[in-house]
TrEMBL record:
Origin organism lineage: Eukaryota, Metazoa, Spiralia, Lophotrochozoa, Mollusca
SMART domains referenced in this protein's UniProt entry, alphabetically: IG (SM00409)
SUPFAM superfamilies associated with the record: Immunoglobulin
Protein name per its UniProtKB record: Ig-like domain-containing protein
Pfam hit, one: Ig_3
Entry-linked CDD domains: Ig
Species assigned in the record: Mytilus edulis (Blue mussel)
Superkingdom, taxonomy of origin: Eukaryota
Domain Ig-like: 154-256
Length: 259
């Protein structure tokens, strides 16, 4: 099965009754044995990048689904990398089906990269010494080089709430989290008042008796002793080195007439 088949590696290994051609360095290969294996008979599974240049070992596999055992830390990695601090992540939001990084997520050791808009994917990328993922992604690979670093984008913001009701003097917490491979440099909340139509920017250095949060360490915002004047729409915004991003708005309203 050639790399340009348009099939993701994870999906490829989860298919049943797949018959593939001869192994080569320019394509994907899957042995028929995977369809018939008794998982209880498998002692361990290895994943090799660049022959033995980079290797991962998973012991006691409980399933034949590749993404299920690659979603946990490997029991063995290449000797120079301490396994206790590494991150092994599947199906990331930057088109990596699998990625092996250090604890800070700023150095990449190996990965499976896929992009639907290119016929030459997936790519199997690795670096013997680890490559700086935040600045350069010219990574040696088995077949080719990955010349552009995916994910050089602003943070992806997650705000699960759309509306919040509160009673007078409640503490109201508006939840905001993010995904970013690059350090978040600034967090702020935009408050559009429904009382007077004025926009206010809430940052970490504003009155802490009224607000807390809105920081890179704690992006969620808590409004202390909320009142009618706090009604309105709140939007979480933040930036990394590649720009600002804004989450979905959260409308908060005070319940009135409650005894």
């Amino acid at each position: 099965m050639d790399n340009g088949s348009g099939i993701r590696v994870m999906d490829f290994w989860n298919m049943e009754q797949v018959h593939c051609g001869t192994h080569s360095t320019s394509g994907l290969y899957r042995h028929d044995y995977i369809d018939y294996a008794d998982v209880s008979c498998i002692s361990f599974i290895y994943v090799f990048y660049g022959d033995t240049a980079r290797s991962l070992k998973y012991t006691n596999p409980t399933t034949l689904k590749i993404e299920e055992w690659m979603s946990r830390a490997a029991e063995y990695t290449w000797n120079d990398i301490p396994q206790s601090t590494d991150n092994f992540i599947i199906n990331t939001f930057y088109d990596y089906e699998f990625i092996w990084m250090n604890e800070r997520n700023d150095t990449l050791y190996a990965g499976m990269y896929y992009a639907e808009d290119n016929d030459n994917y997936p790519q199997f990328v690795y670096s013997i010494g680890g490559v700086n993922f935040t600045d350069s992604c010219n990574i040696s690979s088995v077949n080719q080089h990955l010349h552009e670093c995916p994910g050089k984008v602003p943070p992806i913001i997650q705000t699960p709430q759309t509306s919040v009701l509160f009673t007078s003097r409640d503490n109201v917490t508006l939840v905001c989290s993010y995904l970013s491979y690059y350090p978040v440099l600034d967090v702020r909340w935009n408050f559009d008042s429904s009382e007077n139509g004025v926009r206010m920017i809430i940052t970490n250095d504003i009155d802490h008796t009224k607000y807390s949060g809105s920081s890179t360490q704690a992006p969620s915002l808590t409004i202390h002793a909320a009142e009618l004047s706090d009604q309105g729409n709140y939007t979480c915004s933040m930036k990394n080195r590649y720009g600002w991003a804004e989450g979905s708005g959260i409308q908060i309203n005070m319940l009135t007439g409650i005894e």
